[in-house]
DNA sequence: TCAATCAATAGCCGCCGAGTTATCGATCCC
DNA sequence: GGGATCGATAACTCGGCGGCTATTGATTGA
């Protein structure tokens, strides 16, 4: 049961790959060449990372002649925020419970 | 430059480990034995995962006789929400720029 | 037409991490 | 004290993943 959380966490866990995604968020659409120039790794490595990001739905590609432009798809982060909200909700629900409230007073 | 995001994403990227953390969020404090019973992996594997979670600040341990009780530390998730908020902020900021550009083109 | 550029793919390698079994230290109970 | 239980550690295996170079395919432009 490999859900959306698995894919997102797994995809974003690599620093190089996450840096690429962050850059696309900051600066908008970028070509593979531009991304490679600042990534510190080879062009094939960047292409692989972009493939993983694309399969996770975090980026989309647009072909224009020889170049491929990639851009961030921020909506794909929704499951991530949902997950953290859910964890907080669990926490909150237990916190409302008197027994758990007392149990947590020593923290 | 291994920041808090690296640690969090890396720690939560493993499904087994994330399941342990989720369970601690849902059900509160649990012993290693209880966590092992439902994890599907061996006790040493669970202990290792708990060690990783502890080093990431996501759980704390409390010793009581032979048993060790673990509980979730939800505050440690803050860098994660910060990160997603930041990504959204970048995207929003670029969207505002585009809006300004279009607004100026109208005039 | 042909050289040059861009990005993707193939193929390979090395390492890290998640899993295992075995064991140890500590604690509980009889 | 001695056996049993709990959890951490040791030592090892193995698969996957991130990196590389080399190559291919496609497109550009001289």
Automatic annotation (TrEMBL), chains A, B:
Gene3D superfamilies recorded: Winged helix-like DNA-binding domain superfamily/Winged helix DNA-binding domain
Residues in HTH arsR-type domain copies: 1-92
Database matches in InterPro entries: ArsR-like_HTH, HTH_ArsR_DNA-bd_dom, WH-like_DNA-bd_sf, WH_DNA-bd_sf
Molecular functions (GO terms): DNA-binding transcription factor activity
Pfam families in alphabetical order: HTH_20
SMART domains in the record: HTH_ARSR
Protein name: Transcriptional regulator
């Amino acid at each position: 049961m490999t859900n959306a959380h698995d894919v997102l966490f797994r995809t974003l866990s690599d620093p190089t790959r996450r840096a690429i995604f962050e850059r696309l968020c900051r600066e908008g659409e970028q070509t593979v060449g531009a991304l490679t120039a600042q990534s510190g790794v080879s062009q094939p490595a960047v292409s692989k990372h972009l493939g993983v990001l694309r399969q996770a739905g975090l980026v989309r590609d647009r072909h224009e002649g020889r170049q491929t432009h990639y851009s961030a798809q921020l909506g794909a982060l929704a499951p991530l925020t949902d997950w953290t909200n859910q964890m907080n909700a669990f926490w909150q629900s237990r916190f409302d419970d008197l027994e758990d409230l007392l149990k947590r007073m020593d923290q």
